[in-house]
Write a structure and sequence with these properties.
By secondary structure, the protein is of the alpha/beta class. It has nine helices and 15 strands. The radius of gyration is 20 Å and the shape is globular.
């Protein structure tokens, strides 16, 4: 397993704001953006369905022919950008490795459209000694980062990103230990996850079975669709903290830890039985995987903004496959 560089929850991180201390999730999670968009729509008397406050709606406002919608969108951007500045300022003043970060990369669904570059630009303008950019391929950073952990001698590798709401999959192609191309497989809905509640052994086992099904079916699909020989080592980004080779998130995917002391070995064994060959699973904390996609520059970090917040300071690129994100070819649905 690839441990977190250090255990850190953006969702629970206390951010200093003029209105007092608020959590990162309360300020910048998807539900916070949805609420901000809804309130702004009410301020501008825009007709909306409260059940349809999603990022595509906000994106459509930025390019709308309706001046009211464009103005509302820019106001949302200004407000959410100010919240990002508060978060980055609090990080720089914290007693964590983030205090030395001066290059921030933004990833995740929230920043993948019209809103993202506006947030990054506003933050750059307000933070004189830091730079903030939307990362290339912001929606796929954990998948790209996981592939950088693929076996060093492989020409092709399957990788999986086990997220809280969606499962992303892809086949990486390598030349001279450089990741050149990713053939993206269709995104899947995440298995049922349990938040902040006790689970039974049966529910843990069902989750394990679902993951085994997803990985095994992805392997077969990749083999059949792309007709390549895949590495037996499968890097998997997972939405759970990992410390000392153990999943330490107390719920969601962390519930797997209740089945065996070594979840890595358990998954490898189950997949080996299912596929009929020796499979070696490499589990990677999703924030670390996202940061690995951009590993290299010192004093840099990645913040993933989606359903929740995540990320990591940049890991050491030594031992990882190299990649040029601007030249990386992404094929398929992404």
């Amino acid at each position: 397993m690839v441990d977190c560089l250090f255990p850190f929850s953006f969702n629970q991180f206390e951010v200093e704001t003029p209105q007092g201390v608020q959590s990162g999730y309360h300020l910048l999670g998807a539900s916070a953006l949805s609420k901000l968009t809804q309130n702004t729509a009410l301020d501008f008397a825009l007709p909306i369905d409260p059940q349809s406050i999603e990022l595509p709606l906000l994106d459509s406002w930025f390019t709308s022919t309706d001046a009211q919608e464009r103005t509302a969108a820019e106001q949302v951007a200004q407000r959410i950008s100010q919240r990002l500045v508060w978060l980055l300022t609090s990080l720089r003043e914290s007693d964590t490795p983030w205090s030395t970060v001066r290059q921030f990369w933004l990833g995740g669904g929230i920043v993948s459209g019209q809103l993202g570059w506006r947030m990054a630009k506003a933050a750059r303008n307000r933070l004189s000694d830091s730079v903030v950019y939307v990362a290339p391929h912001p929606n796929n950073l954990p998948l790209i980062g996981a592939l950088r952990y693929a076996a060093s001698d492989t020409p092709h590798s399957l990788a999986i990103d086990l997220g809280g709401t969606a499962i992303k999959r892809g086949v990486g192609s390598f030349e001279e230990q450089r990741l050149r191309q990713i053939n993206v497989l269709p995104t899947l809905t995440a298995p049922q996850l349990y938040y902040h509640q006790a689970v039974t052994i049966e529910q843990m086992q069902t989750l394990l079975d679902s993951i085994v099904d997803i990985v095994a079916e992805s392997w077969v699909l990749a083999q059949n669709r792309h007709e390549v020989s895949l590495s037996s080592r499968i890097p998997i980004s997972i939405a759970s903290y990992i410390e000392g080779g153990r999943l330490t998130t107390p719920d969601t995917y962390g519930n797997l830890q209740g089945l065996a002391p070594d979840v890595f070995a358990l998954l490898s064994e189950r997949l080996s039985e299912r596929l009929g060959l020796a499979i070696d699973v490499e589990l990677i904390h999703d924030g670390t995987a996202a940061a690995a996609a951009l590993a290299g520059p010192p004093e840099s970090g990645v913040i993933m903004m989606g359903t929740a917040l995540g990320g990591s300071v940049s890991p050491d690129p030594a031992g990882l496959h190299s990649v040029n994100l601007d030249a990386l070819v992404m094929r398929g649905p992404h």
